[in-house]
Amino acid sequence: MHDWRSAYLTQARSDFQMFRLLEREGAPLSHCLHYLQMATEKLSKGLKLKPGEAPRETVQEAFVSFLKAAQGMPSVRAVNGFDSSRRYRSFLMSLQPYAQQIQDLTPRGGEAGLRHVNPEYPWETNGIVMVPAEYPFPGYDLNRHHMARLLSFVEHCFLLA
Amino acid sequence: MDRAEVIELARRLAKEHVEGAPELEVIYVFPDEEELRMVEVDPLIPRALGDRVEPFYFRADPANGLPLLTALAVIRPEEDRVLRLPDEWGAWDDAVQLWPEAA
User: Fold this and answer.
1) CB-based contact A73 B72, cutoff 8 Å
2) N or C: which end of chain A has fewer CB within 10 A?
């Protein structure tokens, strides 16, 4: 039986598995990024829940903050296989811009959402309505070395559950 | 753990954190016998979108020197002593400042 923290982290892991499946199957990048964004959001939200505690209203954008907090946690360093604090910190620092990119994909509501590049809802740029499934998402190359590092970090953090 | 042991544990962790992240401006612990509650003030973190301190919780990890559930929040300097604390943490005046160390 799950508590809320465990439930969030389990769903995050499932979202991440869906991301991997879509990536393997060559799905449009928008769908891959959508699942990746959801996985990182639920991972971060889950880790903001104290074991046994019910969720309260929290902000969505917590992934970048999580990377920062993770710098100080020996348990996160250990599950990611680092003996050296300095190397671990350097590793996390190198991931920050990519974590920000993923966090920035979070869909926004209201007027701002109509112009916001995101993997879920159409938006408008210079009078042109864009469709996520047809958009190339420049800068979000999942095969880049640092993005691969970030994905590995996320995968290892599921071991914290 | 008693209060003094918790503060000592937090002090050791804070020392490691500052060595690895010299940009940290202030580190606090809110002493509690069952949970390690820490706040780090970091100018390189995004601004909080809410009005409260929202820590990340990490399970006790005795193998890596952390025998207590650890709650760690990172906030910006302008949020220091401004954001609301989690209900059970008490008030900002209950915090013990670990860094910078008192002269």
Assistant:
1) yes
2) N
